[in-house]
Amino acid sequence: MIDVSFEVRCERLPRDYGYSLFRALADELDWLEEDAGAGVHPLHGTASADGSLFLGRRARLMLRLSPERAGQALALAGARLALGSGLDIGPGRLRELMPFATVYSHFVSTGTADEAEFLGHAAAQLKAAGLPETMITGKAHAASTPEGDVRGFSLLLHGLSPAQSLAVQESGIGLGRKLGCGIFVPHKSVVAVGAA
Question: Angle at the Cα of 74 (from 6 to 90), degrees rounded to 5?
Fold first, then answer.
């Protein structure tokens, strides 16, 4: 797998944008919905009191895709998505995954809002994949979809070998990869992820 990173411009997004962003991207990339391994990274911005999300100049739209699909996704450059005040997609570039010993996901969903059950499900998925069950859970999160709310927590995994790090970044954990869930990125150290 590989990440495709696009420059973006958008004055205002709804704070709970995950499903709308996926649908807008699927309208542009007719294969995205059917590609089981494809993932859409969460966007990072500043939340406002009115429920909007503001994206700064350094914000990036990132997709995690197979190398073949990544090349096809570069065609998104120049598109304008009907999302919030309108999201303009700039040039894209490919970024290889980096094998850090510590990786972090802003939002992992295993189908439960109960933290103890969540940790049990996450540990079982890691064990089944032959990965160490060394993790720290963080803040609770929720995202709306037409089928109902998706709930979960931020999650940090540590003590990974280079091969294990790349494996979990490629496969992810849990549900909702196209909503920004279960996608892991390198993290410099083990810290309290609740503050991240």
Answer: 35
